């Protein structure tokens, strides 16, 4: 499945996911543990863990599917918004804990949560990127020697950093199970 090896080789990956990976995603979406998923799809538990932690294409696909599944829940929440907003408004104006309601409301909408990107909606918070290249780029940024310097300068990831991070993710995802 993975091609490439050393940190100096170009990071490439065979297109698509395996049947086992697709089935694993289906099971993970139901809340199954790595152990349960591994038994069901016929792989070692460590393999499922590596897919989740190191395979950017698996991660992106899992995140994409989570957004799809969770969007129906988000739609239900949106349908309740008019009534909830009416109640919140009454609590803000009349209730003794109105300030708590206000703070909670700000946090739920993301306006009171530092670090939440404008692209994230309530239904996608905490899911992660649905783009494998973005996952690889984030890994490359995380591997830079000085994270504070990274925040201040924000230089783009270069091709060497991207290839090195991708190769390391590929190595970790392809390690043999013991």
Broad structural category: mainly alpha
Order of helices and strands: EEHHHHHHHH
N- to C-terminal distance: 19 Å
Q: Measured on Cα atoms, how large is the radius of gyration? A: 21 Å
State mean pLDDT (0 to 100 scale): 78
Tell me the helix content.
55-70%
Any idea how many domains?
1
Strand content: under 5%
Please give the largest β-sheet: 2 strands, antiparallel
**Uncertain runs with pLDDT below 50, 5 residues or more?**
1-11, 116-120
Q: Per the principal axes of the C-alpha atoms, what is the gross shape?
A: flat
Read across the widest sheet, the strand sequence of neighbours is: 1-2
**Oligomeric category:** single chain
Number of strands: 2
Count of alpha/pi helices: 8
What is the element layout, followed by pairings?
Blueprint: E1 2-3, E2 12-13, H1 19-29, H2 34-41, H3 45-54, H4 56-94, H5 98-109, H6 132-142, H7 147-153, H8 159-174
Antiparallel strand pairs: 1-2
Helix pairs in contact: 1-2, 1-4, 2-3, 3-4, 3-8, 4-5, 4-6, 6-8
Describe this entry's structure for a reader.
There is one protein chain. By secondary structure, the protein is mostly helical. The chain has one domain (2-174). The chain contains 8 helices and 2 strands; from the N terminus they run ββαααααααα. It has helices spanning 19-29, 34-41, 45-54, 56-94, 98-109, 132-142, 147-153, 159-174, and strands at residues 2-3, 12-13. The chain has a two-stranded antiparallel sheet with strand order 1-2. It is flat, with a radius of gyration of 21 Å. It starts with a strand and ends with a helix. Mean pLDDT is 78; it is low at 1-11 and 116-120.
């Amino acid at each position: 499945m993975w091609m490439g090896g050393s940190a100096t080789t170009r990071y490439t990956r065979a297109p698509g996911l395996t049947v086992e990976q697709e089935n694993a995603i289906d099971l993970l979406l139901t809340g199954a543990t790595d152990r349960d998923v591994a038994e069901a799809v016929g792989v070692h538990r460590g393999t499922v863990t590596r897919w989740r932690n190191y395979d950017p294409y698996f991660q992106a696909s899992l995140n994409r599917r989570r957004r799809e599944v969770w969007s129906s829940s988000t739609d239900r929440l949106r349908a309740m918004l008019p009534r909830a907003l009416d109640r919140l408004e009454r609590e803000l104006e009349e209730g003794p804990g109105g300030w708590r309601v206000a703070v909670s409301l700000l946090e739920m909408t993301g306006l009171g949560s530092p670090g939440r990107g404008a692209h994230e909606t309530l239904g996608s918070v905490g899911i992660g990127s649905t783009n494998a290249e973005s996952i690889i780029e984030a890994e490359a940024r995380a591997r830079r020697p000085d994270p504070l310097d990274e925040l201040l300068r924000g230089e783009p990831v270069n091709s060497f950093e991207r290839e090195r991070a991708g190769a390391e993710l590929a190595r970790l995802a392809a390690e043999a199970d013991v």
